[in-house]
Amino acid sequence: MALCCDAKWDEEKGEAVGEPTECALVNDAAKAGMQGLDVEHPRVGEAPFDSGRKMMSVVVEEADGTFEQYTKGGPDVVLSRCTHVYENGEVVPMTDARREEILAANKAMADQALRVLALSSRTYTEKPSDCSPAALEHDLVFCGLSGMIDPVRPEVTAAIAEAKEAGIRAVMITGDHIDTAVAIAKDLGIITDTSQAITGAQLDKISDEDFKERVTEFSVYARVQPEHKARIVDAWKSRGNIVAMTGDGVNDAPSIKRADIGVGMGITGTDVTKNVADMVLADDNFATIINAVEEGRRIYDNIRKVIQFLLSANIAEVLSVFVATLIGFTIFQPVQLLWINLITDSLPALALGMEEAEGDVMKRKPRNASDGVFAGGMGLDIAFQGVIITLLVLASFFAGVYFDMGYIDIADMIAGNADAEGVTMAFITLSMVEIFHSFNMRSRRASIFSMKKQNKWLWGAAALALVLTVVPVEVDFLAEVFGFMPLPVHALLTALGLAFLIIPIMEVYKAIMRKVEKDA
Q1: Is 75 within 8 Å of 68 (Cβ atoms)?
Q2: Model pTM score
Q3: 32: three-class secondary structure by DSSP
Q4: Nearest C-alpha neighbor of 77 from the set 173, 181, 201
């Protein structure tokens, strides 16, 4: 087995280097004291491994001048080429009873989730002139089975369970024996019954049309060929699913390219696979894919939160100016709106982009690929919030006019006599309502009082925005530039109180929307 592979023993490292399965064989031989076998038995011919044959053959020269062929591969395919068996130090004819015994041993090992390889040999007195697979791989002598386990990383089982909860279905595609694949898949929670597994040979008997209808029945594919992987990807895509395909070998490249999201392996992956992949895993860990899904959902959520926050705030600004213009008075000067946009819009919006993932982000089903950014009622949310903020700002303005004059005279305001106290109160309310509203936007539906973690960036942005809102009101020369006036305590508290109302109003709105969406 150690000779029939391309892994090499590295004296400096004290272990084999190469493909993991073949390294295991060389390391196993080294533990038995057989190191550097490739030097003692130089290779003079080979038929490289091929996924179609599922075998590899080498011819090596022995010390006595003879030549020995070693063929390793899948037990079922290797056994089919064997006419004899090496038993108790002798080569004896293969019988049906011995063949059944070998297949039973293979199944017993595969049922333990072991990857099983078979070895066979053939002796030559002269070096074979033809080392093609057809010339080498027949009339072989069965030597034995080798079982090894590729242990599942402990985090993968939890990652698959998390993926299932998030509406993501994991499908295993492998060249291993179906019994090995089924045993591993059951341990991982991918399948619960053997009927959910199928081999490449069985898949060949199903037409493309039938397979598209039945593809949801199978979660494990064993002994597959490269063309089978492409069929699986196409079948899932034909049903409107978004398909992510992972792989590391050259044969995986076509299916990775055809998938919506191709994921290459950064450590074991070939350059061809990594070049066609949309993303490359630096650690070759399936759990990293699920972590990436969670991060993607967090980023998408945050983008929507920022858009909702900015549009609702800007709609309020537009509506406030629009209503004032319709009535015939001025509520804000351009410099005042510019200050609000620069400070109380931008700083909290940037901080919202740093929001951590919500607790239920991996419990939601995947969104429809055709959904726009305003899907799920976000357009209604923005319109409602914009109107509420507008009403609060207008209420603050008219309160300021009343505090200043003792009455509200629309005609006087239309005549161009802008009330400085009303404008100042409206500015304070609009600035502060946006700061308070940014906390509402930490979640589109969850109550802000139910969120256990705090966004330190948002608190910092809110504090800075508050300071920069007060400065142009309280600093005399800036107040003169902006057209503000110092507010008495009752007016300031009224402006702040109106701004704070956005939190309880939104809490009620969120509760209603949660109930509506739950019943929908």
Answers
A1: no
A2: 0.78
A3: coil
A4: 201
pLDDT tens for residues 397-416?
Answer: 988 887 766 656 665 555 55
Q: What are phi and psi of 505, to 5 degrees?
A: -60, -45
Q: How many other C-beta atoms are found inside a 10 Å radius of the C-beta of residue 464?
A: 16
User: Measured between alpha carbons, how far is 259 from 460 in angstroms, rounded to an integer?
Assistant: 43
Is 154-285 assigned to CATH 3.20.20.80? Answer: no
Q: Where are the domains of the chain?
A: 41-148, 154-285, 290-519
Convert the pLDDT of each residue in 45-76 to its tens digit: 999 998 788 899 999 999 888 999 999 999 99
Both tokens of residue 389? 């903020």
Domain 290-519: CATH class, spelled out? mainly alpha
Helix residue ranges, H only, 111-177: 133-136, 154-165
Distance, CA of 201 to CA of 203 (rounded, Å): 5
Helix (H) or strand (E) holding 44: strand 43-50
Fold that domain 41-148 belongs to in CATH: Calcium-transporting ATPase, cytoplasmic domain N (3.40.1110)
Question: Is pLDDT of 481 > 90?
Answer: no
For 362-394, the pLDDT digits (tens) are 998 898 888 888 888 899 999 999 999 999 999
- How large is the angle between the packed helices 420-440 and 378-405, nearest 10 degrees? 150
Q: CA-to-CA distance for 137 and 68, rounded, in angstroms?
A: 13
